[in-house]
Specification:
single chain; Spore Coat Polysaccharide Biosynthesis Protein SpsA, Chain A; UDP N-Acetylglucosamine Acyltransferase, domain 1; 2 domains; 20% helix
């Protein structure tokens, strides 16, 4: 079995961080988004993982090859034309059962259940107000009848969350090819949901499987929300002499904490230094330096420096701010 993970997005909503860092390598709850995804695939019978890369592709490849033993390959998406187009450029890899997982979404689901289903399936999650999402309408037998993007009158409360199990790749590949080669973009992008609708319209059965939890990491706000939720599952860090660490928080082993109050809901990455600061509900990325400030609901990029006083900051990599 193969997994295809599209990670080519430019992460415009996470700028300035994504000017120098791929979105999927942004830190959340102690490790990069992509690490959360790949760690969740360890127990699956994967033969190979294909990454659809684009912006800062070399950083993604370096991270994967350094940290994971998977047999991997990389397909380049030259233009960011949507997630359906990402699968189109990797269509030659659709040679058997294939799991597709979007690279900016962390899901918690029983994927082995999806593998055992007799037909292709999509992960869904129930939400109170589905109007801002792709919505799935199912028939009485539980098969997908229709996928609707951001409907004003949703046909159900089931929303698509970015994980798909394709059992029969041939009809799926034909649908993806039709989507692109017949020119069916929406607002300039090709959407995977539209390809799946073409497949369903051709008579190919499509089921759903439940996703217990789902974290979109595409904006600073959602990244901090994911950090908050996922830290609940992280073991409490060891005490640090001269500082107070309030769980749930994650402190990397190589981070330096001096005379500070950290937490709750704080991630401090490798090589970061925090001194004489109070930090809560924030992410401090690798090799950042934070001194003499009170930070909350903030993201500090790699190699960035913050000194001064109380603030809320969304600071990109290799930046420097002094608050006085």
């Amino acid at each position: 079995m193969r997994a295809i993970i599209p990670v080519a997005g430019r992460g415009k909503r996470l700028r300035p961080h994504t000017h120098t860092q791929p979105k999927v390598l942004m830190t959340v709850a102690g490790k990069p988004i992509l690490a959360h995804i790949l760690d969740d695939l360890r127990d699956l019978p994967l033969d190979e993982v294909t990454f659809v890369v684009g912006h800062l592709a070399e950083k993604v490849e370096e991270f994967v090859r350094e940290h994971y033993p998977y047999r991997v390959d990389f397909v380049h998406q030259e233009e960011p034309l949507g997630n359906g187009h990402a699968i189109y450029v990797a269509r030659d890899k659709l040679d058997g059962p294939t799991l597709i997982v979007f690279g900016d979404t962390i899901v918690q689901a029983d994927l082995t259940h999806a593998l055992r289903l007799p037909h292709s399936s999509i992960g869904v999650h129930r939400v109170p107000d589905p109007r801002a999402f792709g919505v799935v309408e199912v028939d009485r037998d539980g098969f997908v009848r229709r996928l609707v993007e951001k409907p004003q009158e949703p046909p159900s409360d089931l929303v698509v969350v970015g994980v798909y199990m394709i059992q029969r790749p041939a009809p799926f590949r034909r649908a993806v090819e039709r989507l692109v080669e017949e020119g069916r973009p929406v607002n300039g992008e090709y959407w995977l949901a539209d390809a799946l609708q073409l497949m369903v319209d051709e008579g190919e059965p499509l089921q759903t499987f439940p996703v217990a939890r789902w974290y979109d990491c595409g904006t600073p706000e959602s990244l901090l929300q994911a950090n908050h939720a996922l830290l609940e599952e992280v073991p409490a860090p060891d005490p640090i002499h001269g500082s107070v660490v309030i769980p749930p928080s994650s402190i990397a082993p190589t981070a330096v904490i001096e005379g500070s109050v950290i937490g709750p809901y704080v991630t401090v990455a490798d090589g970061a230094r925090v001194a004489h600061a109070v930090i809560r509900e924030s992410i401090i990325n690798a090799h950042a330096r934070v001194e003499s400030v009170l930070l909350e609901h903030s993201i500090i990029g790699e190699n960035a420096t913050v000194t001064g006083r109380r603030a809320r900051i969304n600071l990109g990599d290799s930046s420097e701010v002094e608050l006085s």
